[in-house]
Amino acid sequence: MAAEAKQSCYEGSSVQSFQFYLQQSGEHEAILQCVHSILPGEFERIGADKKALDVLGVGSGGGEVDVQMLSLLQSVFPAVPITADIVEGSSQLTNNFKALVAKTANLQKIPFTWHVMHSGDYEKQVKAKADMKRFDFIHMIQMIYYVDNLAETIKFYHSVLKTNGRLMIIIETANGGWDTLWKTFQKELCVDAITQYRSSAEVIACLKSQGLKYEEHIIHNTFDITECFDPSSTTGGRLLNFLTAKDDFHQSFTQEIRAGILDLLRNKCSTEKDGRVFFNSDLSCILVHA
Known about the structure:
Elements: H1 13-25, H2 27-47, E1 53-58, H3 64-76, E2 82-87, H4 91-103, E3 112-115, H5 119-128, E4 135-141, H6 150-159, E5 161-172, H7 177-184, H8 186-189, H9 200-209, E6 214-219, E7 222-224, H10 234-244, H11 249-252, H12 255-267, E8 270-273, E9 276-280, E10 283-289
Parallel strand pairs: 1-2, 1-4, 2-3, 4-5
Antiparallel strand pairs: 5-10, 6-10, 7-9, 8-9
Helix pairs in contact: 1-10, 2-3
């Protein structure tokens, strides 16, 4: 799970933990495969007959996915001016994003506005202004877990879409490995930055209750967690820390809870192949119409 956590976002050691997870899980690669498959057609619909295009990234992290999407949008509309507003609570990840932009030649034409704050603070700031900037494409990738009020967040970001705009939400899919783990051990896990775990089921229920039109695309992904079952493995320990959002999995839970989590990870959250255990980390890409 990515993006902004309430107490301090991804700063310091949690940035390293997040980057380690991305390397192990292949999550960004899976997301980018989906992005390159579905967004060119969506961008053509969004940008038809428009003289400028405005993009808002919410909880963009280090920008690895954003730069690809902005480059894709440029390739679909090479002559149309594009702006990018970025909302990210972590100053460390924002600096990583800025460094990535500096290295990406085609993005030099795009003016970026950086909002180093949580999405809820951005929402308050925008509502306080008389003149609200609206956007053609808004994306919220792996960050909806951390918002205080899901319904109000979706309602607000949907309200700042322009005509034919799209709001893209990427989140862990219902009944996937993350959903099973965090809902089974909700009492033990939902105590820090994430106080209420959400999957695509909660987002889709919210969209339906607000009468919003959407499409859902499943992003298939698995990653090897075999090392998690070897108590002496550093890699396994680091993965367990990230899966449970703890600094030290082995110190954070009783022996009984640890055993229960490991049993669930092996038998309900994963599949086994050739003696290896692969965690089901399928994602949902939900495209909401303006």
